[in-house]
Structures are given as structure tokens and as C-alpha cells.
Amino acid sequence: MAELNWQRTPLITIAFFLLKQLKQLVSNFSNLVPVFAAIFVGGKNSIWIPIALVSVYVLWVIVSAILNQRFFLYAIDDDAVHVRSGVFNRQHLTLKYERIQQAEVHEAWYFRPFKLTILSVDSAGAAGKEVQIPGLTMALATELRQRMLAQTIKPATEQASSSSEPEVDLQKSFPTSEIIRAGIIDNKLFVLLAVLAYPLSQLDLLEDYVVPWVEANLGWLNTEQAWLLTAAAVVGVLALLFVAAIVVSLLTYHDLTLTLHGDRFQARSGALSIRTLSFRYPKLQAVFVRRNLRARLLKRASVRVSQLRPVTAQAGGQAGGQQFHLPVVDDSFLHEFRGRLRLPEAGQVHWQRLSNLALLGPSLWLAVLFPIVAAILYFAAETGVWGLLGSVALWLIIQTLVVLSWRNYGYSFVTSSTTPREQWFVVKRGIFSRNENWYPRHKVQQIDVVQGPWLRLLGFSHLLLYTAAGAESIRYLPTEQAQQLQLDWVSEIGQQHRRWM
Amino acid sequence: MAIAWQAPERRYRTYLQVRSLLTMLFFAVLIGIGYATGIYPQEVVPIWVAAVIWLAFTLFFSLFFAARRFQFTAWARSNEGMHLKRGALFRKIRAVPLNRIQHVEFKQSALERLFKIARLAMYTAGSGGADLTIPGLEPELAMQLKAELLTTIVSEPDEADATTHG
User: Fold this and answer.
1) CB distance from B97 to chain A under 8 Å?
2) Full set of structural domains in chain B with CATH
């Protein structure tokens, strides 16, 4: 092996290591809360302790960022990339190109003025390693990525044609109006509201703080107008948050462009940091088509494509951040894109429902639970008729939701009529939303037939399918059918010798 | 096609019984320590009630439950996959296609060594723990199975050959 040419990243990458440290702090923040509490309680009388600690921490972050940059070395070989890092615990990592699952070029906003990029590389396997090399020039990063991905596709002989810029089969840009729709569909405000609803309802914020404040400061208003004012203020804040969430989408998905060449799919977007997400068709593990209530009203859908990822990356908070994601597609493009993904036409899918038995369990629980709740409300809490009526209404609502989710659930095994043909296993579900999860059938890794004591009495079983992108279950199948399906699939998958990761 | 299920070694049943006995002994020791140090709430539950409950549990788990669990444990190897059946109350039949197996592990704890049995664990990609563990195997058979599986995995037709370039 030739002597390795170790290289250091440019000085500006100190910013990258600094940000990495800060990210770590944010993700570890909950662990540090007790420490803060202890400092707060213990240092009541001496204000300088927290200040000293914070300044020591800031100093440490800066020094360690500089040291990390000094000690981060990489070398690019013909068949592998080597990375040496760590100040005290030295690490030497060798990543063979042929084992690389994924390589992305990320143009962070603080590198863009310097025309530098970050290259992140994932390897396969359960204990996968993720490596980020900051501060590469765009040309070097793209070339490296080409080389890494070309290696994984085919043997050296066929490389020449694919590693030089391949021709584009399909290119699609998403206009700003579509991105705004994406912002409405995937609005974080609704998540935030759901999270905040409970603590806010417990706080009596309005009663305790807002009303006295208004009364004290705006005495010239009578109470009726004060209520109006608060309502207007709340609506205003919500509207502001709603718009802010759309602006975030506009920033992340600015100039979203989808390009396809051969079996390679790539989406590039971003106003400040430009990120590129891509996958190769053979590595596809699942396709998720999501359509929530807002998306249905706007007649749009969002598509996610999942591939095998290291467990560590999945566990990290940014699991969705690195997945291939088209936030908004209209019906006509969805149709075309589904064709590209070799999914069958919507008309070809014969949805199968779950057995009526699937309703029995939850309904039975509800039927037992709600009379108890009603009895407690009536006798113990002495709420009278209203308690009874309330619990009946709640029962009806939950029972309707259970029936709706059962009605909207469906599964199917379809073979597409595209070339080459692809076999799929699909599950749809949702109460108000319509979500479809598609899995290539030959990528199923493990199949379970499970049966509890009650199901055994009835002669039914659940069928569980595990893929690298998640597990799905078909509940309440007749036991014989479930076991037959299990046998059929295992022998079908066992005879497939196609690439699967 | 019917599956040719194979039962684990008979020693596996004794092993299961001894293991549950050991677990129950651990609880007995806990109760004993509690009684000796006086933490045990003698007024609430008299010691003989605890003893009777303990005895009932021990008899149930060591005699009945372990035997029943053994009775329903079986494994099979077909041309395309590995199958495993287990569970006394909650039955589970698991199947893993051979060409999805990433690596194979031979496992033997101290107690299992005493009973001269072993486990064979199979892993698939992207998942955390073992996906299929066959218990109560003759160690030699386990080793042989492991070697067989590995040759099957290695001699899989190369992915690149089978992929239709397009």
C-alpha cells in the first residue's frame, strides 16, 4: 500500500467543530439539568460560581474545537478513506469505498462564502459509523462522492461510463408556491400546539397572569374589550408562528430540485445551507407516502424514501433529517414519481381489510372502561347527568375513531407492471390522514406468526413482517393462512438473489 | 410444503427447570434475608403464607411451565430459511430467510455448559439484538449448523451478477 497522504482540514473548520460541540450540548441538555439545579441551589449566595462555570465551559468548548481541528486528519486512498481524530482518545477509522452506503455533500451556510463543503459518509451494518469530513472544496467532495458511490454499484470495468457525469433522465424543480404548500402541510405549529396544549391548560395562564396584567395596565378598557384583546393577541401569535413555520420550510426547501439519472435519485435544496439528499434504487428499503388532513385539502402528498441506515444515526434526533424527502408533490407528479419508483398504479392495488375481529378487542375494552368512568363520575365525583352525558359522548367519539382507523386500514401484495417488475407489500392507515407504507417484498428480513391464548381459542394469529426500514403487522389472520403466507414468503425471499442493501 | 420440525435436546428441559428453580431460589433467599433482618412485614402476610405461595410458584414454573415451554420449542431448517417455534402461553413462529442472515453466533452460558447444550444466534442487518436464537442444541450440532449456514451465506450468488444492469 502506498504511503498515505495525511491532510488537515482548513482553519475555518474550527467553526464546524464548535457547532458540533454546541449540538452535543443541546442534545445532552436534559442530562445536565440536575447539575444546573445543584449549582442553582448550592450557589445561592455566591453569584460568581455559575458565571465561573459557564466561562470555563465556553473556554473549554473553544479550546477543544481548536484542538479537534488540529488533530483531525484524513487521507484519501485508491480504495478507502482514512480518518484520524481525537485529542486524548485517538481514533483511526478506515472506510472502504465498497462498504459505503451513503455519501452526501452538505454545503453549510458558514462554509458557503469560502466555497467549502462537508462530506458525510455512512457505512452499512448495525454498528454503522458515520464520518464527516469538513472543509473540502466542492470539486474534491463531488469527485470523492462519485468515486465512493461508483465503487458500490459495479466492478471497475463498467465504471468509466457511470462515473463521468451521467445524463439526466428527469429533472423537476419545485416553485415557491409549492414550497409554501409544503410549509402548510408540514407545519411545526401543530406539533407545538399539541405539545403545549396540556401544560397550558394546567397553568391557568390566562386567569393568573394575563387578565390581572390587562386589568392593571389597561384600566381604561372594560372587561369585555379586554377579552377581545386577549383573543386577538392569541390569534395573532398563532398566525405569526404559522407564518414562521412556513418561512422555515421556505429556507430549507428553497429551490428544491429533483434529478434522476439511471437508478440514482437526488434532491437538492436550501436557501442558506444547501443540502443534497440522494439514494440509489437498489438500496431502497421503503417508500412512505404521507397525506395528512391539510395535504388532502391542498391535494398534495409528501414522499419519503428510506434506506438502510446505521442504528446510531437512527437513534439520533436527526433521523428524518437525512432521509430522502419530497415535502410536497401534486397528483400528476406523484403518479410519475411512483412509476419511477416502480410502484404499481393505484388501480392495481386490491386492498384487503382486517377481519372484523380486530374491532372486537378495543371495543370490548372501551365498553368495559367507560361504564366504570361514568359510574365514578356519577357516584364519586357527583357530577350528575352531565358527567354521564360527557362520558357517553367521549365513548362515542373514541369508538368512532377506532372504527374509522379499522375502516381505513388496508394491506395488499402487489406486483407492479413497470419494467423491471417489482413486488411490493403495502399497508395503508390513518384516521383523518391517508398514509401508505410500501416495502419491496424481497427485502423482508424476518417473519413472525404470533398467537396469544385468546387468539388461539379463536384460531387466529398476527403476522409480523420485519424489514430494515421498520416492522409492519397484519393482525387477525386465520392461523392457517398466516402460517401458509409465512412459508410462501420465506421460500420466495430465499430464492431471490437480488441486491437488497 | 410441510416443515420438518426438530425438537431440542431433552437435556434442555432439565436445563429450563433448573434455571427456573434457581430464579425461585433467589426469591427465597430474598425473603429469607427479609425475615432474618426483620424487614419482612410479618403482621401483614404471615411467613407461612409467603412460603406456600413460593412453593406453588416453584412447582408451577419448574414442573409445569418449563415442561410446556420445552414441549412447544422446535426448530427447522428448510432450503430457504430458518424456522423457530416457541412460547408456552404466547406462541411465536419466527422465520428468517437464509440469504438475509448477516452473521451467526455460537453461545453457551456456564449453566448450559453444565448441561452440555448450546444456543445458535442469527442476526439480520439493521436490527439491534439477535433475531433468531435456537436454544438447547447439542454443541457439536450447533457448530456444524453454524458452519453450514456460513457456507450457504458465502456461496450465495453474487449480488452484482444477479442484478440486472439497466
Assistant:
1) yes
2) 11-71 (no CATH), 74-156 (2.30.29.30)
